[in-house]
Amino acid sequence: MQSLFFIYFKLGVEHILNIAAIDHILFIIGISVVYSLKEWTKVVYLISAFTLGHFISLAITLYFEQSIIPSDFIEMAILVTILLVAYANFFIAESKTDFLMKSKYWFSAFFGVIHGLGFSNYLRSLLLNDELGMSLLAFNVGVELGQLCIVTIVLMMGYLVVDKFGMNHRAWQRITSVFIFVVTISLLLNTFRNV
Questions:
Q1: Residues 13, 192, 79, 183: is their CA dihedral positive or negative?
Q2: Are 145 and 48 in contact (CB under 8 A)?
Q3: N or C end: fewer C-beta atoms under 10 angstroms in the chain?
Q4: CA dist., res. 86 & res. 181, Å (int)
Q5: Cα–Cα–Cα angle for 45, 48, 50, rounded to 5 degrees
Q6: What is the pLDDT of residues 22-56, one digit of tens each?
Q7: What is the tens place of the pLDDT at every residue in 156-195?
């Protein structure tokens, strides 16, 4: 029999690597595409800040046993965070200044809070109340691993496209961001139709 930790860990990984989590996947791609394989530690820190925000919002909503923000609004806010990342990737040149790097971590954590709110209702129905803390931790460790799998794929694709095939990194970043933007607009329009 599988341990409870492993069950929730696996659920976290599957949550991220499932095509139904396309919004989450697009967000992770958007964060990752800015960086080269050599800068992988910066992406890991950004993803970890996102996961921390995700964890905090899940913990708060699970503790209070309900979300006070309507789910339709949260779903649209999640899509807006993806659009903002794609927009920033396309129009704002990468800056290596300390201030901008630090603000990216805060934005990543804040966006993680928004994304966590979107999943809290579903997760609440799956977690056992007597093992809430451990289940939540295991789930978020799984989320982090799933996100790092996506980061690895994006960084490896960037390495191939930029370093092996000679595409300019800024062009790779912009093309990927346009793809993210178009798919997210489609998701947003679909969300508006369902409201």
A1: positive
A2: no
A3: N
A4: 6
A5: 115
A6: 999 999 999 999 999 999 999 999 999 999 998 89
A7: 999 999 999 999 999 999 999 999 999 999 999 988 777 6
Q: Which of 130, 125, 89 is nearest to 107 (CA)?
A: 89
Domain coordinates in residue numbering, the chain: 4-194
Task: Give the DSSP H or E segment for 112.
Answer: helix 98-126
pTM strictly above 0.85: yes
Residue whose pair of structure tokens reads 């996100």 in the numeric block: 147
Measured CA to CA, the distance from residue 131 to residue 152 in angstroms comes to 32
What six digits make up the tokens of 48? 């970890």
> What does the block give as tokens for 175?
């093309």
